[in-house]
Design a protein that fits this description.
Blueprint lengths: L3 E5 L4 E4 L7 E7 L6 E5 L3 E4 L7 E8 L9 E4 L11 E7 L2 E10 L7 E7 L7 E7 L3 E8 L5 E7 L9 E4 L8 H4 L3 E4 L4 E3 L7 E7 L4 H19 L4 E7 L4 H8 L5 E2 L5 H9 L7 E5 L5 E3 L9 H12 L2
Parallel strand pairs: 17-18, 18-19
Antiparallel strand pairs: 1-2, 2-5, 3-4, 3-6, 6-7, 8-9, 9-12, 10-11, 10-13, 13-14, 15-16, 15-19, 17-20, 20-21
Length: about 325
């Protein structure tokens, strides 16, 4: 196994390698040194401090008990002063293929164009350029492989030789296979697209029981839509699934077409099954589920619609 560069700053460097053992023997030295410094680690990631600028270092690693080391990583540490901050990254499962991911990457820059790179942290891949000509300070990279392996991301402007700090390791969300049973295998968007419910993995899921004929529903829906848009703008992992109590397909179509979220198909058997399973006695009803389909908040309509409340829901959904 060969070390791979993850991140660096003025006086530190972070490397990692393939996670293929429970313990590792790591060695490092300056290129001009004869003797190696030895370390024993249980982690497959190491942050080395007190690195000197404009100096070449060698790093090598092997699983404990292995006979020999692979070729070392050779790293010349740059002279770093004002290094840009790491980007913020939101990873989501692609709507129609749970084996693929999208990553929304945002950063603070003053002059483009910008180059953005990503790294699949499998210990074998190298940094890959997602774009070298971004004129805004955000991109969305689609169709990244989802192998339950962390990713890292970094950026720089065309006028810079120094990369930003790296964002990572970022573990992508796991497909929410349980939602096929808790909701329906396939959901729909207001534009008519079909979305796999398993693609909602890693998200807070709002289950919204409503109908156009219901006056209180028509009052609550715009408030929920505003909250939904705000959470999306903040990069929060949030999705709402509408379960209609409308009296006909045409009523459903007319009501749903202005909604920004997903819905259980009106004609599906699951729609009435979900309503019965959740023992809906009145609408509007708004519940919070996690990716396993477990109810986290059965009366979410009574909560404040703000980021602090969302963060509480997320913590309850995904606390270990």
């Amino acid at each position: 196994m060969r070390p791979v560069l993850l991140d660096y700053d003025m006086s530190t460097v972070t490397i990692f390698w393939a996670n293929e053992g429970s313990e590792y023997d790591v060695q490092w030295k300056k290129s001009t040194d004869v003797e190696w410094t030895h370390l024993s680690l249980k982690s497959s990631l190491m942050k080395k401090k007190n690195i000197e600028a404009d100096t070449m270092y060698h790093f090598r690693v092997k699983a404990a008990g292995a006979d020999s080391y692979d070729e070392p990583l050779e790293w010349t540490h740059p002279s770093v002063n004002a290094q840009p901050d790491a980007p913020t990254v939101v990873m989501e499962i692609m709507p129609n293929d749970v084996q693929l991911l999208s990553a929304t990457v945002q950063w603070s820059g003053s002059s483009g164009p910008y180059e953005v790179q990503y790294l699949l942290m499998d210990g074998k891949s190298d940094w890959v350029t997602a774009t070298s000509a971004a004129n805004s300070t955000a991109i969305k990279k689609k169709n990244l492989p989802n192998h339950a392996v962390p990713y890292a991301f970094r950026w720089r402007s065309a006028s810079m030789s120094i990369w930003s700090r790296a964002a990572g390791p970022i573990l992508p969300p796991a497909p929410a296979l349980a939602l096929s049973r808790a909701l329906a295998p396939t959901l729909v968007s207001s534009s008519g697209s079909s979305i796999s419910s398993a693609s909602l993995g890693g998200k807070v899921i709002g289950l919204y029981f409503s109908a156009h004929w219901c006056g209180p529903c028509r009052q609550f829906t715009p408030m929920l839509a505003q909250f939904y848009h705000t959470m999306k703008q903040l990069g929060k992992p949030f999705e709402v699934v509408f379960v209609s109590a409308d009296r006909s397909q045409s009523d459903f179509d007319g009501y749903f077409r202005d909604m920004p979220w997903l819905a259980v198909p009106y004609a599906s058997d699951e729609r009435e099954e979900i309503e019965a399973r959740h023992e809906i006695r009145g609408i509007p009803t708004f519940k919070i589920l996690n990716a396993q389909g477990t109810i986290i908040d059965a009366d979410a309509r009574q909560r404040p619609m703000n980021a602090a409340q969302f963060d509480q829901w997320y913590a309850r959904c995904y606390s270990s």
